[in-house]
Design a protein that fits this description.
The complex is a heterodimer.
Chain A: E1 2-5, H1 6-20, E2 24-28, H2 42-46, E3 51-53, H3 58-70, E4 74-81, H4 89-102, E5 112-117, H5 132-136, E6 142-144, H6 149-161, E7 166-171, E8 178-181, E9 194-197, E10 202-205, H7 208-220, E11 227-231, E12 234-236, H8 240-250, E13 253-260, H9 265-277, E14 286-290, H10 301-304, H11 308-318
Parallel strand pairs in A: 2-3, 2-4, 4-5, 5-7, 6-7, 10-11, 10-13, 13-14
Antiparallel strand pairs in A: 1-8, 6-12, 9-11
Chain B: E1 2-6, E2 16-22, E3 29-30, E4 35-41, E5 44-49, E6 54-58, E7 65-67, E8 71-76, H1 79-88, H2 110-116, H3 124-133, H4 151-162, H5 165-170, H6 182-196, E9 199-207, H7 209-220, H8 222-225, H9 231-245, E10 251-254, E11 257-260, E12 266-268, E13 270-273, E14 280-283, E15 286-287, H10 295-311, H11 316-319, E16 324-326, E17 349-353, E18 357-363, E19 366-380, H12 386-401
Classes of the chains: A alpha/beta, B alpha+beta.
Chain lengths: ~325, ~400
């Protein structure tokens, strides 16, 4: 089994699916050359017809993917940075999500939206914001995010094969994260969370870079608090069963999420836990999220992004 | 328009306040400037006024202790706005609170009633476990944040029940809440005092046999004076005169400076019954400008502040501005008791007389029986050294032993 970085794993997923299915193609800006290395080398094998570079015109770029999906193709549209998807957000969220329903469940729209997201690179705003919560808000779109190279490959393959529109952002902080990735043709099913660490005192729900932070904090607090860590992996559909099973054991929940606090993914999960698991709770759910501020550039980023210190403080608060 | 009504900052050092009473019922119309709630902070109760006129929408119930600037109520211009708030956020007070539009509640029993019927705070899991175990949550001591009953509390209560009545009876612990109570304030202040000041204590005995005779003369004309002058009044007078001789002992630290106070304001420590039958409370109201007063006037004022302390009617002015502390344990402590009192910051000095004791003393070569007053004192060595403190102690000693000197 090869040890790959997260971007190499995504690259493998693209290559395998491009080989397997002629209807799959990639469209984006600079994906033949590569600002990010996840599409490196693909144009050499699959040619410019299937690795399509576009001008800086997100609506046009997305229109290509949308129209192709209507015609039976399975495009992967790469926005480079997640914030750029907002340029064509009406099409990418509302029109895309509702397409299947508005066409009498007759015409699926099998496309994948992907982009790099996340804090940690001090890039600010459009270059650092998360998009999973915003897309998850709109009905009809699946949203998932890999935390490991293994998940990155399996999740991207699952997304490409899914008949629904699927958004797969990936976190820049994990770009060089290494992990074992099988050569096999496997998929990671969308909608299944992963229990990353067993514990009995408190459950931390965290994804991507924040999952890494949560696991580090859990290891640090060993002996003091027995921390269970769950990676939701998929935001839509969300694996409520795994979370409630965990809460039946721990009765305390901290949700770590790089989305904004207001109306974000953490808010949704928190509300659902109250609706479906109220009697399991021994303390109010605590969220560690971005405050409702634009993501600042430079070192200021550290003040608003979730980090191990904030996660530890939340654990201590919820376990008081 | 809807105006937020927040916990006001009533004193420089105020960080949080307790809502002791809502003077106006939820939904009543209030006028700008009229008292709306009673807030207790740092041992003093304040009537807090309405910042604007309108209809009162109460958010936090009586008994809540919250940080300054916390939203406690809203005031609406119109009744419709008030009703809209009812739908959105019902007041957190218990459901039996006075209905909208009813007459203002100002009865003295109201706060206590509201406290005892307040909603029990428990986590959902704790409620479920308690229901399953057939436990009454009211009987479960809470250890969670903000006095919330959590899972561990229910499990502990359950264990106590299953351990049997004999075991339960032999181990009845009593919990006295500290958070948000005067006990908590005293605890914090005492620790602050010990952690910040360089405290040095000394004790000695002063022969007050002659002072007691002088006092008898005051007692003989008690009716004319209008008060039965106490020894404490003489001690306060002597302290004022001794401090005039040693002004550095009547001082406090402000920023990077030592401030020598122009007048002698004596904070008198008064013990009060506690919130429960077990604990006690302590207040230190202030006698201002004691250097200008005679013993009779001092005595009257001490008795007046003790009476007001017991009624809980001390004003902020009466609680502020002490420059020195008098903390007497006379009559309570065993005769001859000495101690190392804790300074009442920011005062540089505390004088703590206790119960007098009769002792054989050698005077002019003869053994005589004299009444000795044990005095313990603590001073802040940051402000004054042993030399001025000793001069103060000597001056106080001489004034009490030779009361005629107080005529000076």
């Amino acid at each position: 089994m090869a040890e790959l970085t997260l971007v190499e794993a995504i690259n493998r997923a693209y290559a395998e699916e491009l080989r397997r299915d002629d209807s799959v193609f990639l469209v984006g800006q600079d994906i033949r050359g590569g600002i990010f290395p996840h599409t490196m080398g693909l144009v050499q094998e699959f040619g410019p017809e299937r690795i399509v570079d576009t001008p800086i015109a997100e609506s046009g770029m997305y229109g290509v993917a949308f129209g192709a999906a209507q015609e039976g193709f399975r495009p992967v549209v790469d926005f480079m940075f997640g914030g750029f998807s907002y340029v064509t957000f009406a099409e990418a969220s509302v029109t895309t999500g509702q397409y299947y329903f508005l066409h009498g469940s007759q015409h699926p729209l099998p496309l994948v939206i992907t982009a790099a997201v996340g804090t940690g690179m001090r890039l600010a705003n459009d270059h650092a914001m998360s998009i999973h919560g915003t897309f998850a808000h709109h009905p009809g779109i699946k949203v998932a995010m890999p935390s490991t190279p293994y998940d990155a490959k399996g999740m991207m393959k699952a997304a490409i094969r899914d008949n629904n529109p699927v958004v797969i952002p990936w976190h820049m902080g994990l770009m060089q994260e290494r992990g074992e990735v099988p050569e096999d043709d496997y998929i990671v099913p969308l909608g299944k969370a992963a229990v990353k660490r067993q514990g009995s005192d408190v459950t931390i729900l965290a994804n991507s870079v924040q999952l890494k932070h949560a696991l580090a904090v859990a290891a640090k607090l060993e002996g003091e608090f027995d921390v269970e860590v769950i990676d939701p992996r998929s935001f839509v559909p969300f694996d409520m069963e795994t979370l409630l099973t965990s809460l039946a054991k721990t009765s305390r929940l901290v949700i770590v999420d790089e989305d904004w606090e207001s109306g974000g993914f953490a808010a949704t999960v928190s509300a659902r836990v109250m609706e479906q698991g109220f009697d399991l709770l021994d303390a109010p759910v605590i969220r560690v999220t971005l405050p409702n501020l634009p993501v600042p550039g430079g070192y200021m980023e550290e003040y608003i992004a979730p980090n191990p210190a904030k996660i530890e403080a939340a654990i201590r608060q919820v376990c008081a | 328009m809807i105006t937020d009504y927040v916990m006001p900052k009533l004193a420089m050092a105020m960080n949080e306040g307790t809502i002791n009473e809502w003077l106006v019922a939820d939904g009543s119309h209030i006028n700008k400037g009229s008292p709306v709630m009673v807030v207790e902070t740092e041992k003093v109760s304040y009537d807090v006024e309405a910042p604007v006129s309108g209809f009162l929408h109460i958010i936090l119930p009586v008994g809540e202790t919250v940080p300054v600037e916390t939203l406690v109520a809203k005031i609406t211009d119109t009744e419709e706005e008030w009703q809209s708030l009812q739908g959105a956020t019902a007041p957190a007070s218990d459901e039996k609170s006075t209905p909208a539009g009813a007459a203002p509640v100002v009865s003295a029993a109201a706060p206590a009633a509201a406290l005892t019927t307040a909603r029990i705070k428990a986590s959902p899991l704790a409620r479920k476990l308690a229901a399953e175990a057939g436990l009454d949550l009211a009987s479960v001591p809470a250890t969670g944040p903000g006095g919330r009953i959590v899972k561990r509390d229910v499990l502990a209560a359950k264990n106590q029940v299953t351990a049997g009545p004999a075991a339960a009876a032999s181990a009845q612990s009593i919990r006295v809440p500290m958070k948000g109570t005067m006990r908590g304030t005293i605890a914090r202040r005492m620790m602050e005092s010990l952690q910040t000041a360089a405290q040095l204590s000394a004790s000695w005995e002063t022969d007050i046999t002659r002072l007691l005779k002088v006092r008898q003369k005051f007692l003989a004309i008690e009716d004319q004076l209008g008060t039965r002058v106490s020894i404490n009044a003489f001690i306060a007078r002597a302290m004022a005169l001794a401090l005039k001789q040693v002004p550095i002992a009547n001082a406090s630290i402000e920023g990077d400076d030592i401030v020598l106070h122009a007048s002698v304001n004596i904070g008198v420590a008064i013990a009060l019954p506690g919130n429960t039958e077990i604990d006690t409370r302590l207040v230190v109201p202030v006698l201002h400008n004691v250097e200008q007063l005679g013993v009779v006037e001092i005595d009257k004022r001490i008795k007046a502040i003790i009476a007001r302390a017991r009624e809980g009617a001390l004003t902020a002015q009466e609680m502020n501005g002490a420059t020195v502390t008098l903390s007497s344990t006379a009559g309570i402590a065993p005769a001859g008791l000495t101690s190392t009192p804790v300074l009442n910051l920011p005062n540089a000095l505390l004088v703590g007389p206790s119960t007098p004791i009769e002792r054989p003393l050698v005077r002019k070569g003869k053994i005589v029986v004299r009444t000795m007053l044990p005095i313990s004192a603590t001073f802040d060595h940051r402000i004054l050294d042993g030399e001025p403190f000793s001069r103060f102690a000597r001056a106080l000693h001489d004034l009490l032993e030779t009361p005629e000197l107080m005529l000076a």
